[in-house]
Design goal:
This protein is mainly α. It has 17 helices and no strands. Helix 6 runs antiparallel to helix 15, helix 10 runs parallel beside helix 16 and helix 14 packs antiparallel against helix 15. 58% of the residues are buried.
């Protein structure tokens, strides 16, 4: 259903607050995990599940939620997502053990799956031209800016009020977002075609992604050559092959592979996956600063202040560079700067306060790179597809964000924890951060070799 409605600042603020539900509040767990584990007295395994399951659930269900939002209503799905976040956050507040904690985190991931593609489709539908690019920039401030603030915010709240107040504030912000979005005319695609949902594709995808996540996170504990680990690897390989074969043969496929025929969309999505995988940097550096350098969560979070400031400033710069030179060059520049920032943090052989300076500068470059990359990549993704597939395309693009973050954090945590021995966490931090530099290098390659050289 289409109207002559034009997006307002009120709607845009509501959308940004909705996006923060995941990128700011849920992602704060990357810094406050030690405090949460101590309070709830849960095992390291349960804690690792709680850290990764939010992004994993978001990534698994985001495409399905995006497709359903197109059919049933993008405003409706945005509001449902906010309600799910309120419930999930409330469960975290009342949790006394691993059960409610993990369920609450899973609901936060499901909420993100509802919110992100629906709000991005609203931006595409109700904002045009320069206004759309401005709206995309503010949407990106909510996502990239939220991830930039999460370490600082989570550490400050946890050290002063207690970590549960992170999620109390999340509930309050979600209620405000609901009030701002309510009353917006519904946006959905009108179609006479009756198609059943692709439950087979979704089931194969869920099994494959869970096997991948468990295999990475539990590989060292189970033994990399153990029958169970090898079995999980086999499930992933076979699952991906079967998933592709099933999807390309169906008209109601869970993932519309025809979207990837557009090189701009393909390059933006792959590089988005890889650049979100560097979220593992936040886990590694926050853990190392607390465990290896003796800082508390608040002081460790303060080191990311440059990240926050730079990502907020450079998102609008990325928008201007997009308008001046197209998407490809800003995406390359941003990714390269991001890699340099992480490389500075990886210089763990530097002792004393000098290393803290390197981390602060590294964080600032990290945020600068992400800020420059964000708007050109997002605009390329959503402007390359027809409006009737906006929700599905946005869902796949944001699936790349969530799965990239989940897999990146899982791999980084496995490297960090696997190489750290006793109280010497330096080797784990060094190679954990180098792993994230490698993600940036692969992102650069995907931009160079896939995205066409044109404005």
């Amino acid at each position: 259903m289409q109207t002559n409605y034009k997006g307002t600042n009120k709607l845009l603020i509501g959308i940004v607050l909705a996006v923060l539900a995941f990128w700011l509040f849920a992602q704060s767990m990357l810094n406050i995990a030690p405090d949460v584990q101590k309070t709830l007295k849960i095992s390291a395994g349960a804690m690792n599940i709680g850290i990764s399951i939010t992004a994993l659930f978001s990534g698994i269900f985001i495409v399905a939620a995006g497709g359903l939002a197109d059919k049933l209503g993008r405003v409706k799905f945005s509001l449902i997502g906010l309600v799910l976040n309120i419930i999930g956050s409330a469960l975290l507040v009342v949790a006394t053990g691993s059960g409610l904690f993990i369920v609450g985190r899973a609901l936060q991931g499901l909420a993100a799956a509802f919110i992100m593609p629906a709000t991005m489709a609203l931006v595409k539908t109700y904002y045009d031209g320069a206004e759309r690019q401005r709206a995309v920039s503010y949407w990106s401030i909510g996502s990239w800016g939220g991830s930039g603030l999460c370490s600082l915010f989570g550490g400050a709240v946890s050290s002063s009020l207690g970590w549960k107040y992170v999620f109390i504030i999340s509930i309050v912000v979600s209620v405000i977002s609901i009030l701002l979005i309510m009353g917006t005319p519904e946006s959905k695609v009108k179609s006479d075609k009756k198609q059943s949902f692709d439950y087979v594709g979704l089931t194969i995808f869920v099994i494959t992604m869970l096997a991948l996540n468990i295999g990475i996170s539990k590989g060292k504990e189970l033994g990399f050559l153990s029958p169970l680990t090898l079995g999980l690897i086999a499930v992933v390989i076979v699952g991906l092959y079967v998933f592709y074969k099933v999807e390309v043969s169906k008209s109601n496929s869970f993932i519309d592979f025809s979207l990837f025929k557009n090189q701009g969309y393909l390059g933006a999505t792959i590089s988005n996956f890889l650049l979100n995988a560097v979220a593992g940097t936040l886990f590694v550096i926050n853990s190392y600063m607390q465990q290896g350098r003796g800082l508390n969560s608040q002081k460790a979070g303060m080191m990311s202040l440059g990240y926050l400031v730079c990502v907020l400033i450079t998102i609008r710069i990325g928008e201007k560079l997009l308008q001046k030179m197209g998407s490809r060059k800003p995406m390359l520049i941003g990714t390269l700067i991001n890699a340099i920032g992480i490389a500075l943090m990886a210089l763990t052989m530097v002792q004393g306060s000098t290393y803290f300076v390197l981390v602060f500068i590294g964080y600032a470059l990290f945020g600068t790179g992400l800020g420059i990359y964000a708007t050109p990549s997002t605009d390329t993704a959503i402007s390359s597809v027809p409006n009737e597939k906006a929700g599905v395309a946005a869902g796949i693009y944001k699936m790349a964000s969530s799965l990239g973050g989940a897999i990146g954090v899982t791999i980084s945590a496995a490297v960090y924890n696997g190489l750290a021995s006793g109280k010497d966490f330096t080797a784990g931090a060094t190679y954990g951060l180098i792993t994230n530099v490698a993600f940036c290098i692969f992102a650069i390659m995907s931009i160079v070799f896939i995205i066409p050289k044109k404005k």
